[in-house]
Design goal:
It is built from 10 helices and 28 strands. The protein is elongated. Strand 23 and strand 24 form a beta hairpin. The strands form 5 sheets. The chain has a 9-stranded mixed β-sheet with strand order 14-15-16-13-1-4-3-2-17, with helices on one face. An 8-stranded mixed β-sheet has the order 6-7-8-5-9-12-11-10, with helices on one face. It is α/β, with parallel strands linked by helices. This is Phospholipase/carboxylesterase.
């Protein structure tokens, strides 16, 4: 039986309610297009992840990035899909004016976004839709919240625009315990209930629906899931006080962090959902006047910031010029330089790495090239490779044949889809990736005209009699690399087939670094100049 209490239209003077909600996205461009382009939110912050500098973190919100309006995304570009289940939030909800339901239904139809509803939930009209990763997003008609800081994107009228977060739904097998934590520590109170849902409300007016998910499967982290809910704290002292309280109750698994834009604590409630307790201050505007206009790398990462930046996925805001992504058989990443010269550097990683691994070296080697980096499709103990190996020095010949054929077809599609200039294309590979390039030159001759092979060997047992005339190859070998004894045979093989080969041995092992980037840059410069 539904029991509901109406929330008055008021502005609570105290700090309470939701600070932000964080989700995990698989494709950054689709995410930006949905939350900025369709929903009309403002991109208020773009940073590298505070735990992982190679992970992009985006915040969307109202015009000033107010706590309570913020939804953030950890971008696991091309990452594994998660599973929604108990121990995790399952839905997020945004507040829109009650009379704007029709506007949003029409807008969703125009954007080709499927909706369900409107339906009444706790006395409020609700339409449901899904974001590009399948997360359920609710647009809830309510007049609880002020329109003072609504973002005007020039397309969604301010009268119909999203006001802020309305709330979230949590799936839990321990609904009473989950509810008790939220009401005791974060200032919520019980508002209404159905047979399956307990609705909680904060003094700020936002809601948390605690749904009994007993018998449902457990959640699994990954793209298309909600990572955590952050609640608002008055100040650092309140955050530290909660940590002390939890420690006194026997919970020593909490973690406190300074996230620059807020100071916060992470904890898990008994049902498994991750909560954060975050201060309003110093806020999103602490490091830029025009919110969302710059990419920031957290200060505690003291390494090569240019290398960190190039590993983050790029995107364009609605209306900006963009490089539209294509669906290809190989997962891949593009990185555009600030001043492109029309050349392209194709990157193939080593065993167990990914499509981001060679981007820093690639950018140093080719500052003005489009970087096109691929992820191998074969696996060894769960780690990507371009083809399987049988022993450290012998390889699956059938896998090589099929993968080089797929690689050649992929590059043919990429040339057309991305408008690449084949005459200004260089293939750079490391270890297994270098061996993949070697095998492709021999088994699929014609489209690789220039190659840089780092720590390479010939992976083929049967050598085709092909003409490699006109192909230029740079081989860089580490003097103490276990594969170094195989490098002369590779050089001779390519020379015998007509390729032009420059072979260099450096003081290194199997690892690669700045010395390789410098040699590659000089070799490329002498040919592109």
């Amino acid at each position: 039986m539904l029991q509901a209490t109406e929330i008055s239209d008021r502005q609570a003077p105290m700090t309470s309610g939701i600070h932000h909600i964080t989700l995990i996205a698989r494709k950054v461009q689709a995410n930006v297009d949905f939350y900025v382009g369709f929903l009309g939110l403002k991109l208020v912050k773009r940073t590298a992840g505070f735990e992982d500098a190679a992970q992009l973190h985006l915040f969307y919100g109202d015009a000033i990035g107010s706590p309570g309006s913020l939804v953030s995304f950890l971008v696991w570009e091309d990452g594994a899909q998660g599973r929604v289940g108990h121990g995790q939030p399952s839905e997020i909800a945004f507040a829109i004016p009650s009379e704007s339901i029709g506007f949003w239904l029409t807008r969703a139809l125009r954007f080709g976004i499927a909706t369900s509803g409107p339906a009444q939930e706790f006395g409020e009209p609700v339409i449901r839709l899904k974001d590009p990763d399948g997360v359920i997003v609710k647009l809830v008609g309510t007049d609880v919240f002020s329109s003072k800081h609504v973002f005007d994107n020039g397309e969604v009228p301010k009268s119909d625009a999203i006001r802020r977060l309305r709330g979230a739904t949590i799936l839990t097998e321990k609904p009473s315990e989950t509810t008790e934590v939220i009401t005791r520590h974060f200032g919520y109170r019980e508002l209404a209930a159905t047979d399956a849902i307990q609705r909680l409300v904060s003094d700020s007016g936002d809601i948390i629906d605690v749904r009994n998910a007993g018998g449902f499967w457990t959640a699994a982290p990954g793209t298309g899931t909600i990572d955590h809910i952050a609640f608002r704290a008055v100040d650092k002292a309140e955050v530290k006080a909660l940590k002390d309280t939890l420690a006194a109750e026997g919970d020593d698994q909490t973690a406190v962090h300074d996230r620059k834009y807020f100071f916060s604590l992470y904890m898990r409630e008994p049902g498994g959902t991750l909560f954060e307790f975050a201060t309003d201050a110093p806020g999103m505007a602490v490091d830029e006047e025009t919110l969302g206009s710059h990419l920031f790398i957290p200060a505690h990462f003291t390494g090569d910031r240019e290398a960190m930046t190039v590993m983050l996925p790029q995107f364009a805001l609605p209306g900006e010029e963009r490089f539209a992504a294509r669906e290809l058989p190989f997962v891949h990443r593009l990185n555009q330089p600030d001043e492109p010269d029309g050349s392209t550097l194709i990157l193939l990683h080593g065993s167990g790495a990914s499509e981001t691994s060679l981007l820093p070296l690639g950018r140093k080697a080719a500052p003005h090239s489009l970087l096109f980096s691929l992820r191998g499709r074969s696996t060894e103990e769960g780690a990507p490779r371009f083809f399987r190996r049988l022993t450290p020095f012998t390889f699956d010949q059938a896998d090589i044949a099929s993968e080089t054929e797929a690689f050649a077809a992929t590059m043919e599609d990429a040339d057309v889809g991305y408008g690449l200039d084949a005459a200004r294309m260089t293939f750079l590979g490391y270890s297994n990736g270098a061996n993949m390039i070697t095998a492709t030159m021999l088994l699929q001759p014609g489209f690789i005209r220039r190659a840089i092979l780092l720590r390479a060997m010939n992976p083929l047992t049967k050598l085709p009699d092909v003409d490699l005339s006109g192909i230029e190859v740079l081989i860089v070998t580490g003097a103490t690399d276990p594969y170094a004894p195989h490098a002369p045979a590779l050089e001779n093989l390519l020379l015998e087939r007509g390729a032009t080969v420059e072979a260099i041995t450096i003081s290194a092992g199997h690892e690669i670094g700045d010395a390789d980037a410098k040699i590659a840059a000089e070799w490329l410069s002498s040919r592109n100049g």
